[in-house]
Amino acid sequence: MIENEFMMVSVLCQTYNHEQYISECLQSIVAQKVNFRYEILVHDDASTDNTANIIRKFEREYPDLIKPIYQEVNQWSLGNKVFSGIQLPRCTGKYIAICEGDDYWTDPSKLQRQVDALEKNKDCFFCVHKTVEVSEDEQPTGITFPEVECAEGKILPDEFLMMGQNYQFQTSSYLFNGDMWREYEKNPPEFKTVCA
Description:
The protein has seven helices and eight strands. By secondary structure, the chain is α/β, with parallel strands linked by helices. The strands form two sheets. A six-stranded mixed sheet has the order 3-2-1-4-8-5. It has a two-stranded antiparallel ribbon with strand order 6-7. Helix 1 (22-30) links the parallel strand 1 (7-15) and strand 2. The chain is globular.
C-alpha cells in the first residue's frame, strides 16, 4: 500500500551495452517492496547491443515505474555528463538511489530500509550498505565494498573523510537526500566554486 502521493525515491540507472545484465538489474528494482512511490530513470547511452530492447520490454510492463531515455548518440563519448547533466535534473524524488545497468540489488526491502533510516535521521545526507562483488556466474569474488569493516550507525563527516581516499562504498548502495543535493548544486559552497 502506498502511503504517500509524492515521489519518495528516484532510482538512477545508467546503462551502455549491458545486454547480459540489464534484465536482472531492472527486475531487482521493480521487485522492491515499499510503502511509497518511486520512479526508475533509465538512461541508455546509445547501446549497440540489445540493451535498449530489454529496457523497452520493462517499460511496457511497468509504465508507471520505468522512465527511460534512449540516446541515439553516445553522450559520454561527446563529453556530456550523464549523471549530473542528464539524470539528476530528471529526479523528482525526495531521495535518490543508484543502480547501474550491470549491478543489481538482492534485498527487496533495500529501498524501504534505507528510506526509513534517513527519515529517522534527518541530519544525515546519505545511507549506504556493504555490497558483495560477484562474477558473471554469480559467484562471490571475495571483494566487498567497503573492504574494511565499518561501524553501523551514523558516520560523522570528519570520520568519513578520515576513512581514506580509497573507493569506500559501491554506488549501488547509495541512497541520498535529493533535496539537499539540489540545494548544493543551486548554491554550491565556496570551496567548490574556488576548487572546481
